[in-house]
Write a structure and sequence with these properties.
- By secondary structure, this protein is mainly alpha-helical.
- The chain is 68% helix and 0% strand.
Length: 157
């Protein structure tokens, strides 16, 4: 079960990135072209937030009770969590950056509900989505990150 959830968590990364890029483009074009806020934009932003929250829940399960979970793993004798690359990344850096990214996704979606001008909605949402994208790109265990952090681009590879 842990492997399947980890693969799903990994796969949803791509869903979030695609939806996030679409949301950024919609927010940018709405802001620059001074468009009227459309229901389609609100739905796109909602789906982006839902994908982010679903991935966050799967990630929190992995962090707490997964194969290398905080509550299911005992550090080897003499190993400090903050000095070990693997544990520091998966127990501290990755969860922290992803939680912050989801906060910014939620703030961006929240702009669709605010009673402010459409230009302000698009502008603020654009920056919130952009910050979320940068945090996600910084916190994902990309293959080029090196051992022991790196994960494949596609689940199971």
């Amino acid at each position: 079960m842990d492997t399947g959830l980890l693969h799903l968590h990994n796969l949803l990364r791509w869903v979030i990135l695609i939806l996030l890029l679409v949301s950024i483009v919609k927010a940018w074009s709405g802001w620059q072209n001074k468009k009227v806020f459309a229901p389609g934009d609100k739905k796109t932003w909602l789906f982006t937030m839902i994908a982010g929250h679903t991935t966050l829940l799967l990630g929190l399960y992995q962090w707490a009770a997964g194969r290398y979970g905080f509550f299911t793993t005992t550090l080897p004798e003499g190993v400090s969590m903050m000095k070990d690359k693997f544990y520091r990344f998966y127990w501290v850096e990755h969860p922290l950056t992803m939680i912050l990214a989801i906060v910014f996704l939620t703030l961006a979606h929240g702009m669709s509900k605010k009673s402010v001008s459409d230009e302000v909605k698009y502008r603020k949402a654009f920056f919130y989505f952009l910050i979320a994208l940068l945090l996600i790109l910084a916190g994902v265990p990309w293959p080029f990150r090196g051992e022991p952090i790196a994960r494949g681009l596609v689940p199971g590879m």
